[in-house]
Automatic annotation (TrEMBL):
The lineage of its organism: Archaea, Thermoproteota, Thermoprotei, Thermoproteales, Thermoproteaceae. One of its GO terms (molecular function) is zinc ion binding. This is TFIIB-type domain-containing protein. Pfam families: TFIIB, Zn_Ribbon_TF. Residues 1-28 form the TFIIB-type domain.
Length: 159
């Protein structure tokens, strides 16, 4: 770099500005290229997982509510390794009135029905296990199960 005034090559960087040592004129600021932001592997993996979850959600939006609940009940039964839990839960769901579970998430309904079905069969499973499978709170399962428990005995008696 040369000084545009005295044509000297004796230029130094002082406080972020280029200064000619011979004539003392300030040539200009130091230009620093922008840093390239690198994405960590963890952030990239998290983004991929979110994309997969969004894709699953978009597909589920196209389905009917009952199909989505059935999908999640099957998923829970497969993870627990107990097909009978899924069968009993689906039987209970088909006999429930829509007004009972209206406004609830299909994941929460499926989890609560699976929990109640396992309870009826005599298979002990903790709410936290089911909550981890579907990625929901064990407290939402507790609240929904206690609400559904009022109607489940009548459904079984009518069978």
């Amino acid at each position: 770099m040369n000084c545009p005034y005295c044509k000297s090559e004796n230029i130094v960087l002082v406080d972020g500005e280029y200064v000619c040592k011979d004539c003392g004129s300030v040539i200009g600021p130091e230009v620093v290229p922008p840093r390239v932001k690198q994405i960590s592997a963890v952030a990239l993996r998290r983004r991929v997982v979110l994309i997969l979850l969004e894709k699953e959600t978009k597909e589920n939006v196209k389905r009917r509510y009952g199909e989505v609940v059935e999908f999640y009940i099957t998923k829970i039964a497969n993870e627990l390794g107990r097909g009978d839990v899924g069968k009993v839960a689906m039987e209970i769901f088909r006999k429930l009135d829509k007004r009972i579970y209206q406004g609830k998430s299909p994941r929460v309904i499926a989890a609560a029905l699976s929990y109640l079905a396992a309870e009826q069969i005599g298979f002990y499973v903790h709410k936290q296990v089911i909550a981890k499978i579907l990625g929901i709170s064990k407290f939402s399962i507790r609240d929904t199960a206690s609400r559904l428990r009022r109607y489940v005995p009548r459904i079984i008696e009518n069978s």
